Amino acid sequence: MQKVISLAALTLALAVAGNAAAAELTPEEQILTRQAGYSFMSWNMGKIKANLEGDFSQQQVAAAADAIAGIANSGMGALYGPGTAKDIGDVKTRVKPELFTEQEEVGKVARNFIQAANSMAEAAAMAEGKGDVKDAFTKLGESCKACHDKFRKD
Ligand code: HEC
Question: Tens of pLDDT along 79-98?
């Protein structure tokens, strides 16, 4: 019995250690991971746009909006750690240096974005047609652009 307990404790300890290790990304991995997050949001924005321009599937729009909100609420700020402001060899970044210095402004655009993503997910969950998500989608797109205009290079 003693052995079983200690094995379970060891397994738990390993799992926790594994999680901590996975959360600690190298600067290169942080850049690639944040770019992957943005690209994945962009793909989902495209799906919503296609639904607004063509046949509307509430299920598809809600799934895409949930995916975007999930990323928005995931704490992406953690992927802008030390050493990630500039290209690292082949790993290029388009982040502007201002993102690391204008904390207050970054916080403002980030909060607007999270709020817009949550509103979009709420609207999509209840949507009966395009008209129910149009405004929320426009606002969400504007919140992406607001950050790019200030903190992303062309
Ligand atoms: C808080 C600021 C911020 C918000 C909000 C934001 N982005 Fe970005 N985005 C950036 C920055 C900074 C980069 C450049 C990242 C890099 O190259 O390291 C970027 C890069 C991208 C890229 C290029 C990814 C790549 O592979 O290089 C896409 C696509 C993108 N964003 C789409 C979006 C979409 C869609 C939204 C909204 C749903 C959004 N972004 C919201 C700051 C933001």
Answer: 999 999 999 999 999 999 99
Look up the pTM and report it.
0.89
Name the fold adopted by 27-151.
Four Helix Bundle (Hemerythrin (Met), subunit A) (1.20.120)
CA of 2 to the centre of ligand 1 (A): 51
Closest CA to 93 of 146, 29, 141: 29
Nearest-angstrom CA–CA distance, 94 and 85:
9
Look at the chain and count its residues. Answer: 154
- Protein residue closest via CA to atom 30 of ligand 1: 38
